[in-house]
Amino acid sequence: MNEVLQEIPTFTKLTEKVIRILGLNPNEFTLQVGTNTYLIGTGPRKFLLDTGEGKPEYTQLLFDSLKKLGENIIISDIIISHWHTDHVGGIDSILQYARENNLPLPVVHKRLDHKHDKPHQKFQQIADNQIFKTDGASLIAIFTPGHSEDHVAFYLEEEKAIFSGDTVLGQGTTVFEDLGKYIDSLHKLKQFTPGRLYPGHGPVIENGTEKLGEYITHRLEREKQIIEEFKTSKSSLTPRQIVEKIYAKYPESLWPAAERGVILHLIKLEKEGVLQRLSPGSDSESLRGKWAHINSKF
């Protein structure tokens, strides 16, 4: 949990088809020097995958990088992995720069999320399995909810690689909204047997299929630990009591985040008929209340 972050340059030509430009928005969640954004393609018309959070210095870095690549290099399309601000926040500034400098306006693609998408932003809806093509690159959209409901990953056919967004990170583990959907998405990505993952944050992952397996195993092992706590205690438990047991060796400062993760595991197990919530409702108070193993006898 206290892994030392690898240093990453703000501009890196990873392959002939993929260039990584960092969003210059570092914090404890975005890692290194912020969100990874990617220019994709071998010709003059590039795809831009994700846009950072809109830092002016990122916009300048992006367009300076395009100029260095060649006079006629443009962004034909912006493709968004999901609605979180550190991925969509740069859209407006990129479009504004293009207008002010008489550059072609990129078409912006995103899986629509009416709850979170800004009304003034117009997106072309991304469909599951939709194929995006530019010179040297074919991307297949893969719906991967879990981290967020609208999350999409992209399979780069020519490299047998996946742009994993925030479903898999280059270092550490990600957060998620729905654990059941998240694990299903990990299995879905693993079926592509990618050799490489280009994550939304952190360094490139060279052993993509193996890393996806590790993520799945980690989540299922945590789930087994939680079930074992119920079996051992033979009584109802709160998420906090579970955290105190299975995170006993970790600093207490990490326990609130661990408790949120445990609650998501409990919700998944409730949906699967393994656990039941003893406090009715879905508010935070009931979620932090007592839970019981359905097969237990009290």
Automatic annotation (TrEMBL):
Domain of life: Eukaryota
Protein's UniProt keywords contain Translocase: no
InterPro entries: LACTB2-like_MBL-fold, LACTB2_WH, Metallo-B-lactamas, RibonucZ/Hydroxyglut_hydro, Sec-metab_biosynth-thioest, WH-like_DNA-bd_sf
Name assigned to this protein: 16841_t:CDS:1
Swiss-Prot/TrEMBL keywords: Hydrolase, Metal-binding, Zinc
Family annotation (PANTHER family): ENDORIBONUCLEASE LACTB2
Example GO biological process: secondary metabolite biosynthetic process
Protein's UniProt keywords contain Metal-binding: yes
Family: Belongs to the metallo-beta-lactamase superfamily. Glyoxalase II family.
Domain Metallo-beta-lactamase: 34-201
Pfam families according to UniProt: Lactamase_B, WHD_BLACT
GO MF terms held by the record: hydrolase activity; metal ion binding
